[in-house]
Amino acid sequence: MTFLAFVSILAGVMFGIGAIAAMSRIIRGPSILDRALATDVLLAIAICGLGAEMAINRHTDTLVVLLILSMFAIVGSIAIARFMAKQDAS
């Protein structure tokens, strides 16, 4: 087993543990903000996982997917922040 294969497996395991923790917070989260933050974390894990896969396999085929996921994360965070601000105002 090469060093790159070992690091790839280790990164996959760490991303998997993080994704499971984020999914449990989405399911059990007591408030909408907990669920929103966990969704942002899950999107960040997906972005990092795709970026690591691109670096390991030395290609840029999924770069568009990375950009779209980033756009969804930003727009979703802004939408939730505006929604919560309107709820606090009333």
From TrEMBL:
<feature type="transmembrane region" description="Helical">
    <location>
        <begin position="6"/>
        <end position="24"/>
    </location>
</feature>
<dbReference type="GO" id="GO:0005886">
    <property type="term" value="C:plasma membrane"/>
</dbReference>
<feature type="transmembrane region" description="Helical">
    <location>
        <begin position="36"/>
        <end position="56"/>
    </location>
</feature>
<dbReference type="Pfam" id="PF04066">
    <property type="entry name" value="MrpF_PhaF"/>
</dbReference>
<comment type="similarity">
    <text>Belongs to the CPA3 antiporters (TC 2.A.63) subunit F family.</text>
</comment>
<keyword id="KW-0812">Transmembrane</keyword>
<keyword id="KW-1003">Cell membrane</keyword>
<protein>
    <submittedName>
        <fullName>Sodium:proton antiporter</fullName>
    </submittedName>
</protein>
<dbReference type="GO" id="GO:0015385">
    <property type="term" value="F:sodium:proton antiporter activity"/>
</dbReference>
<keyword id="KW-0813">Transport</keyword>
<dbReference type="InterPro" id="IPR007208">
    <property type="entry name" value="MrpF/PhaF-like"/>
</dbReference>
<feature type="transmembrane region" description="Helical">
    <location>
        <begin position="62"/>
        <end position="85"/>
    </location>
</feature>
<keyword id="KW-1133">Transmembrane helix</keyword>
<keyword id="KW-0472">Membrane</keyword>
